[in-house]
Amino acid sequence: MANLSKTRTVFAFTSPRTIEKIIPEIQILVGLFSGREWNTNTQIAFFHELFNSEFYEGSKMPDNVSLAARDRITRAPKALGFVDLKPKIALTEVGKKLLSGKRTSEIIAKQLFKFQLPSPYHKIPSDRSFNVKPYLELLRLVKELGNISKMEIAIFFIQMNHHNKFESVVAAIKKFRNDIQKHKGNRKAFIDDVFTKQILKIYSEEIKGNDLKTRESGEATPTKFVNTKKSNHIDYADAFIRYLRATQFISFDKKTYRMIVAPSRIAEVDYALKNVDRKAKTYNTEADYKKYLFNPDSLLLLTDNKKYLEKQLAKLSVKFAATASVESLKDLLEATEKKIISDVIVGTEVALKNYKEFDDIVDVFGKIQQKKVPDPPLYLEWNTWRAIIMINYAKKVRGNFVLDLDGVPLNTAPGNMPDIESEYDGFKMIIEVTMSSGNKQYEMEGEPVPRHFGNLQRSSDVPVYCLFVAPKISEGALAHFFNLNRMNTKAYGGKTRIVPMSLSQFVSFITIAKDKGFKNSKVLKFYLDSIIQKNLSLDDESIWYQQIHDSIPFWVS
């Protein structure tokens, strides 16, 4: 049971930040450890299996392995009812639904809207007056306000520990917006000042009692305490957005990047807000709570209504049998929506030809660097895919990220495949992107990038290249790729061909393609070969990287 004795606000699951990443982790847990006790030995064994999996991000084993395992399993997987850990490790009925791969967004929505504070899993002192379903109320807030920013969630929504505070939170955000419009000075400083005042109000008792230690820091000063709490609130806001996004009930405005109700899901959102009870239920025992949490049908959405499904399919001119079950109608609607998304991708590709969206692509890259988009890693994948499509002359370009029905990026590529794959006459190229920097970049990308290259190279009858793009290329990653390009590595199909570029260099790269009329994929292959040849002949990675930088203005001759 989570110890929430000091909790004053709602919280989100921050590990992993993207809920879909729990799926392969649950598969490892139940595939190898079902029927065993969830104890220290099992936790350590589980994490070692996770660490050695192809989708785990990172190359350093944590100091406290059992704690890291609990962090992965007892938060989202257990709290949302996908696994049961007592008396033995077991996959629940909703867990089976999740692992089936069918209608993932629907099952996630149901479990998020069941999540409540307090609960038998999350005991909170009664004097804190918690009574809230956070994900449901955040959805309601988006609907009520029309849109919301991450900072508004961090400052105001995180305080909503009871559903009866909804109207006051709405009023506070509206006042905040009005005050910003009237403010003549520095906008960023104004927002930070508002944030600080709210933190001081929320944690006034801790500050007054000099109870300033936090789990994240041993430093116990008022300034450090306030800054830590701000950081926590922002992390929670980010996680709330990512998890709620997985329901596909919400999306992002394509200009402001503020969270909005997904236009294609308005009816479903209205139904959920009207029919799902806002109040946290009281359970006599943990077993009673589990019966509710583990039951796929204990909370129903509009997509469980047969007449609604039939209406949607009829609207899309899809034929179905009058005797079809709800499940078969759901399958048919899901398949139809996938076809719609495929058509959206094709339409996007057509619109990108001939540099029609060049200015927008460059602008989005700028916003990504400034972290002014809601999910920078996801938007970096999506926008890099747009850029590769735009410079044209590939036979095929496939982004392995996922879009929603409204054509807005939904999920990054799974960890076991490249971010983007492109095929040209006589060669192939994968593009790997990351927002990580410093040592973290090497830890997260040093193994997956060459592995993805090797997987494709071993099965390809033409040369494969890899373009690695990050806001800044770290020294560790640069040295690693420089050396892999010079060595025969059986696991990677021989010598790799990985070319690193910073995001600013990549923007220059596509700008040169536009300005010089790039129209022959052989030119791209010649350029990539020249970079790899320099890699083999130059003394060190710094000289090589400078050569890459110097060559970009002339890559299209």
Description:
Helix 2 crosses helix 3. The longest helix is centred in the middle third of the chain and has 27 residues, at 326-352. This protein has 24 helices and 13 strands. By secondary structure, it is of the alpha/beta class. The protein is globular, with a radius of gyration of 25 Å. It has a 5-stranded mixed β-sheet, with helices on both faces. Strands 1-4 form a two-stranded parallel ribbon. A two-stranded antiparallel sheet has the order 2-3. The relative contact order is 0.08. It has helices spanning 22-33, 40-51, 65-73, 76-79, 93-99, 104-114, 134-145, 150-155, 166-182, 187-202, 204-208, 222-245, 266-275, 286-294, 306-315, 326-352, 358-369, 376-391, 438-445, 448-459, 475-484, 503-515, 521-537, 541-551; strands at 2-3, 83-84, 90-91, 122-123, 250-252, 259-261, 396-399, 402-403, 409-411, 420-424, 427-433, 464-470, 498-502.
Give the structure's gist in a few sentences.
The chain has 557 residues and is α/β, with parallel strands linked by helices. Helix content is 52%, strand content 8%.
Keywords:
single chain, 557 residues, alpha/beta, 5-stranded mixed sheet
Q: Helix content range of the residues, please?
A: 40-55%
Task: Characterize the biggest β-sheet.
Answer: 5 strands, mixed
Count, helices: 24
Compute the CA-based radius of gyration.
25 Å
| Share in β-strands | 5-15%
Strand order of the largest sheet: 7-10-11-12-13
Oligomer: single chain
Structurally, the number of domains stands at: 2
Terminal residue distance: 65 Å
* Uncertain spans: none
What structural class should be given to the helix and strand makeup? alpha/beta
Number of strands: 13
Q: Could you tell me the mean pLDDT?
A: 94
Shape: globular
